[in-house]
Amino acid sequence: MAIITCRVQYLEDSDPFVCTNFPEPRRPPPYDLDENTALIEQIAGVHKLLEAPLKLEECALQMAPNGNYLDLDLSLGEQKDDVEQLYDDVG
User: Fold this and answer.
1) Which residues form the FHOD1 N-terminal GTPase-binding domain (predicted)?
2) Cα atoms found within 13 Å of the Cα of residue 58, Cβ hemisphere only
3) Domain housing 41
4) What is the domain-level CATH number for residue 55?
């Protein structure tokens, strides 16, 4: 079981014209993701850690800075080509 530590934050982007939208929290906390477990099974832990105001079913995972959204039905290992930068930062 490989663990990947990521910095996580949420964006409340329901109204793109509000100028006070900014990533919360300001200092993204680290979160350990299991490389071989589907992200759908891990997103609840991220949601709880961040105390995100959105409903869990409205959440998605997006990689920064490239902006790619991850497939929650797959694990990080299954999306390794899409998250190559994440593995470069860890390795």
Assistant:
1) 5-89
2) 9
3) 25-90
4) 3.10.20
